[in-house]
């Protein structure tokens, strides 16, 4: 107590008795009674302990998680005397090595979809009981069904298509970005199936591109490195690279053929 009697909820009777109305947990404390007259005074004190029924609160009312993760839900209970906390499942039992309920916290290890259900926390004492529920929903992990290659070396002037798609129980979205950039260049676009299309490849498109797949729970990504594009002929270099004559590296037959070699291109003619 802070030294003041509960405002509006106490009465001191003519007999000297103190009556508290609508007792609350905050009324707990030591109360002092003082009686005095012309001959002196006397004091008496009383320690008041307030008992009240259980009340429960959960750390979450609804929890979504991917399979194979570990989840925990804390059930906090108040009451005097201290209530006993137990967990149960709306349908079925809590049996299983991967399910533990200790000190009011429910823990489920390496979850599977079959463990998704409504779970009930109950706090009980001699003054009654209280319950609260939490819905646990578990989904298959987000995963790539098609990943782009880790590295690719395109031809200058060609069109490059990089496929990327993902799946999960929760509908995923797929998007692309270039590393170090917030948006893709104007000469690129992403198809509805998640494929990144880079038109008319040129050196400025060299770099790392990241495909990201997201759902309501998580995000995964896959990175592809686009190497400096190579030319197949001097005419390609003149059209897409430079109109200045000089030595350039070309690769006429592409990957798997002869190694790229240097030639002099008369591009200013």
Automatic annotation (TrEMBL):
InterPro entries according to UniProt: Ig-like_dom, Ig-like_dom_sf, Ig-like_fold, Ig_I-set, Ig_sub, Ig_sub2
Gene3D superfamilies attached to this UniProt entry: Immunoglobulins
UniProt-listed SMART domains: IG (SM00409), IGc2 (SM00408)
Pfam family, one: I-set
Domain Ig-like: 1-49, 54-137, 141-227
PROSITE patterns linked: IG_LIKE (PS50835)
Record keywords, A-Z: Immunoglobulin domain
Matching SUPFAM superfamilies: Immunoglobulin
Tree of life domain: Eukaryota
Keyword Nucleotidyltransferase part of the UniProt annotation: no
Keyword NADP: no
Name of the protein: Ig-like domain-containing protein
């Amino acid at each position: 107590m802070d030294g003041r009697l509960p405002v509006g909820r106490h009465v001191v009777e003519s007999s000297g008795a103190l009556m508290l109305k609508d007792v609350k947990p905050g009324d707990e404390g030591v109360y002092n009674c003082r009686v005095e007259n012309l001959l002196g005074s006397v004091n008496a004190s009383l320690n008041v302990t307030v008992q009240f029924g259980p009340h429960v609160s959960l750390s979450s009312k609804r929890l979504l998680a991917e399979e194979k993760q570990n989840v925990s839900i804390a059930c906090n209970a108040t009451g005097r005397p201290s209530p006993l906390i137990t967990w149960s499942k709306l349908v079925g039992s809590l049996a299983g090595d991967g399910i533990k309920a200790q000190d009011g916290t429910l823990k489920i290890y390496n979850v599977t979809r079959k463990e998704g259900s409504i779970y009930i926390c109950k706090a009980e004492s001699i003054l009654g009981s209280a319950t609260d529920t939490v819905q646990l929903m578990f989904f298959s992990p987000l995963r790539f069904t098609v990943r782009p290659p880790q590295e690719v070396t395109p031809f200058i002037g060609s069109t490059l298509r990089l496929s990327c798609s993902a799946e999960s129980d929760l509908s995923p979205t797929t998007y692309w970005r270039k590393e170090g950039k917030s948006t893709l260049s104007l000469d690129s676009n992403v198809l509805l199936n998640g494929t990144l299309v880079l038109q008319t490849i040129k050196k400025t498109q060299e770099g790392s591109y990241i495909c990201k797949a997201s759902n309501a729970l998580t995000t995964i990504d896959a990175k592809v490195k686009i190497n400096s594009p190579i030319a197949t002929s001097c005419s390609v270099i003149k059209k897409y690279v430079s109109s200045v004559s000089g030595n350039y590296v070309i690769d006429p037959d592409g990957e798997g053929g002869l190694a790229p070699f240097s030639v002099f291109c008369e591009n200013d003619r």
